[in-house]
């Protein structure tokens, strides 16, 4: 028997995003403070975002903000606000805490270059 009938698709996506975030947060926590850790590829860093914000930052018919094409400064400011608890959230505060400043900047550069709905790049 399939368990798909137990949770709507949106709940599966949120569960996947939370699991991915918790795993990536735990991995970052093992990096010694002050260590020059190599930053993963931006598309890898952005992977957990897909559960709520869609592949490459675009999801159609969603309650979540699309990230594709978002200006870098807005993405960075928003992520830092979530991370520093200046912006209320149920999930994004924990998500943002899993990323360093450099990783947030790399993801901002990735998302600004992703096509948003109705555009082609």
Q: Point out poorly predicted stretches.
A: 22-36
Q: First CA to last CA: what distance?
A: 43 Å
Could you tell me the mean pLDDT? 77
- The fraction of residues assigned to DSSP E strands is under 5%
CATH architecture label: Orthogonal Bundle
What gyration radius follows from the Cα positions, in whole Å?
15 Å
How many E strands?
A: 0
Structural class: mainly alpha
CATH domain class name: Mainly Alpha
Query: Do you know the CATH topology?
Result: Cytochrome Bc1 Complex, Chain D, domain 2
Q: What is the 3D shape?
A: globular
Give the % helix: 40-55%
Fourth CATH level, the homologous superfamily: Cytochrome c-like domain
- Give the helix tally: 6
Largest sheet: none
Count of domains = 1
Descriptive account of the structure:
The chain is mainly alpha-helical and 121 residues long. The chain has a single domain, classed as Cytochrome Bc1 Complex, Chain D, domain 2, CATH 1.10.760.10. It is built from 6 helices and no strands. The longest helix is centred in the first third of the chain and has 21 residues, at 9-29. Mean pLDDT is 77; it is low at 22-36.
């Amino acid at each position: 028997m399939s368990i798909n009938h137990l949770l709507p698709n949106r709940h599966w996506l949120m569960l996947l995003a939370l699991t991915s975030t918790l795993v990536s947060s735990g991995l970052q926590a093992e990096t010694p403070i002050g260590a020059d850790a190599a930053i993963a590829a931006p598309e890898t860093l952005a992977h957990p975002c897909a559960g709520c914000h869609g592949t490459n930052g675009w999801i159609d018919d969603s309650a979540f903000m699309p990230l594709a094409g978002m200006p870098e400064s807005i993405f960075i400011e928003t992520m830092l606000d979530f991370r520093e608890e200046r912006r209320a959230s149920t999930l994004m505060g924990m998500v943002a805490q899993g990323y360093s400043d450099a990783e947030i900047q790399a993801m901002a550069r990735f998302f600004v270059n992703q096509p948003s709905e109705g555009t082609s790049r």
